[in-house]
Amino acid sequence: MSCLLAAVMIGSALVGCSTTGTPIPEPEAASKHTSTTPAVRQTDDAGRGLPFRTEFPNRWNVNNNGSSYEPCTQVSDDVLNRFGLIAASVSDVAGSDFQTARGCRWKYHDDNSSYISQFVGNILRPEEGLTGHKALTSPGKSWLPDRSINGRRVLASSIGTGDCSVHVRSGDAVVVTSVTRFDLEPPPVAEICATASDFLRATLDEIPS
Q: Least packed by Cβ within 10 Å: which of 42, 110, 131, 149?
């Protein structure tokens, strides 16, 4: 006699019947809630898209948020062309997540192992300004005389042949412009510093004080 017939005959569907197997719960939680991974930020504070796709969720972080300036979106192709740089060669200066340096580098047309980079990093003691920044970052650098560009104080440093960086304050951060030459006979440091200063001058209107 079937279970259905037995149930009808004795008035109860539960008497004499059993079901084998493992019950499968309904996926109520899955149907009511969907979890999504937040997208990695790809735009600057003004909504301009980066010229590359970053995989670093903390590319913008507490170590470099002292200025809204973003070199990767605010250095124009016109400026890059003027300095003999390849706009399409743009790359992130960050090699890992949560770095202090936030910015980009561009290679030269005539020597793609040499480049100009510009990046932002917070001043550790903003109340001490550029003087404190200079004191805290002196190891490994040779400091050249300070200069003034468009009325703003600019530091200049070199870590050796073929290298010069200039530093300008922006909010609670510094914007560093570095020229790195790997020529067999690189230009003198003074000439490289002049190029770094000229590049900074060409972008300074975009950099808030």
A: 110
Rounded Cα distance, 5 and 158, in Å? 94
Q: Which residues of the chain have pLDDT under 70?
A: 1-36
- Other residues' Cβ atoms within 10 Å of the Cβ of residue 85: 22
Distances (CA, A) of 183 to 82, 111, 114, 148: 20, 8, 8, 29
* pLDDT number for residue 155: 98
172 phi, psi to nearest 5 deg = -100, 25
Under 8 Å between Cβ of 138 and 86: no
Distance CA 180, CA 186 (A): 9
CA 180/CA 20 separation, integer angstroms: 74
CATH number where 130 lies = 3.40.1000
Residue 119 belongs to a domain: yes
Count of the separate structural domains present in the chain: 1
DSSP H or E stretch at residue 196? helix 189-203
Q: Whole-angstrom Cα distance, residue 46 to residue 36? A: 25
pLDDT tens track for 81-139 = 999 999 999 999 999 999 999 999 999 999 999 999 999 999 999 999 999 999 999 99
CA distance 96 to 208: 26
Q: What is the pTM of this model?
A: 0.82
